[in-house]
Design a protein that fits this description.
By secondary structure, the protein is α/β, with parallel strands linked by helices. The chain has two domains: about 230 residues, Aldolase class I (TIM Barrel, Alpha-Beta Barrel), CATH 3.20.20.70; about 45 residues, no CATH class. Helix content is about 30%, strand content about 15%. It has twelve helices and twelve strands. The strands form three sheets. The protein has an eight-stranded parallel β-sheet with strand order 5-4-3-10-9-8-7-6. Strands 1-2 form a two-stranded antiparallel ribbon. A two-stranded antiparallel sheet has the order 11-12. α6 links the parallel β6 and β7. The longest helix has 18 residues. It is elongated, with a radius of gyration of 29 Å. The model has no long low-confidence stretch (mean pLDDT about 95).
Length: about 350
């Protein structure tokens, strides 16, 4: 499966820098953030495409007041999204700029009008946010565009995850990535449950990954060891920009260190390979082999006193020792000689 030119089965982990609300209301900051993401090695920058009116209602009723111990408690949903949204008129310039410098770019649509709008820019994928996984018609309409679908599973039941996958497949879209996600901001390590990453792939027959809201790089590193093919994390140019998502976003230095840690973890994991590499062959000189440990005259018997398994590895394999012991020497052997009979 490919996202843009990136092959998830061959090219390693696809790392997404989530811009979200970290633009400070200035397109210049958004572009600087895209450039920074490119400079530190992210594979993609992801936007969010909504307005306050497409995502909620401008209501003062209690249901629309945020509560529950979040960073945004007591704020009205409409006001939060009005502050955080990325203006639609910026999209073309940001898509053009990202492609000009060479970083992939796509977005999360939050309603059908956003999908129609984003189609103008030929995005490499679509991301369904965790809180939108229950919006089956949005998933159906987005999947029908036949672009890769990256779906966060944060608040979903197993049945809802299955429904989302089935909907994509019903419209003929098999390019599905499910992201393990804990929809808390920030998320605690205890709630990460990263063991679900391989289980998502196995249970639903898809590629799996991780949308991270924890603090630090530990979770992405562990996700890498568990087979995540996509890692997404909120990215902010500088936390002094502030905004709705700043507290749980990584700045440039932190994100760069995270990417380096993930790439190093990929190198460490490597692949299953029992072949004799050049390094293995070179190192075998320090392995054990059979050597003459005492001068042996022709006609003498080979014993454990005159033939031993020692380092280095230029003699016969130690597995032949049992076949040699008790046999008669057909020539003289000198102490320290590699035994090659």
């Amino acid at each position: 499966m490919k996202i843009g030119n990136f092959d998830l089965n061959k090219d390693g982990i696809y790392i997404i820098a989530e811009l979200s609300a970290n633009h400070g209301g200035e397109i210049g900051i958004a572009k600087e953030t895209i450039k920074a993401a490119y400079d530190i090695g992210a594979n993609a920058i992801k936007l969010q495409t909504y307005t306050a009116d497409t995502i909620t209602l401008d209501s003062d009723k209690e249901d629309f007041i945020i509560k529950g111990g979040t960073l945004w408690d007591d704020r009205k949903l409409y006001d939060l999204y009005k502050e955080a949204y990325l203006p639609w008129e910026w999209h073309k310039e940001l898509f053009d700029y990202a492609r000009e410098i060479g970083i992939d770019i796509f977005s999360s649509p939050f309603d059908k009008t956003a999908v129609d709008f984003l189609e103008e820019f030929n995005p490499s994928a679509y991301k369904i946010a965790s809180f939108e996984i229950t919006d089956y018609e949005l998933i159906r309409y987005t999947a029908s565009k036949m672009r890769p679908m990256i779906i966060s599973t944060g608040i979903a039941t197993i049945d809802e995850i299955q429904d989302a996958v089935d909907i994509c497949r019903e419209v003929g879209n098999e390019n599905i990535v499910l992201l393990k996600c804990t929809s808390a901001y920030p998320a605690s390590l205890e709630d990460a449950n990263l063991s679900m990453i391989p289980n998502l792939a196995q249970t639903f027959g898809v590629i799996s990954g991780f949308s991270d809201h924890t603090l630090g790089s530990t979770a992405p590193i562990v996700a890498t060891t568990l087979g995540a093919k996509v890692i997404e994390k909120h990215f902010i140019l500088d936390k002094s920009i502030g905004g709705a998502d700043a507290d749980f976003s990584m700045d440039k230095k932190e994100f760069k260190e995270m990417i380096e840690a993930v790439r190093n973890t990929e190198k460490l994991l490597g692949k299953v390979d029992y072949s004799m590499t050049e390094q293995k062959k070179l190192s075998r000189r320090f392995s054990r082999s059979l050597y003459v440990s005492k001068d042996i005259k022709k006609g003498e018997v080979f014993t454990e006193k005159n033939i031993r398994s020692v380092r280095p590895g230029y003699g016969m394999h130690p597995k032949y020792l049992k076949d040699i012991l008790g046999k008669i020497a057909e020539k003289d052997f000198e102490f320290g000689e590699a035994f090659n009979r």
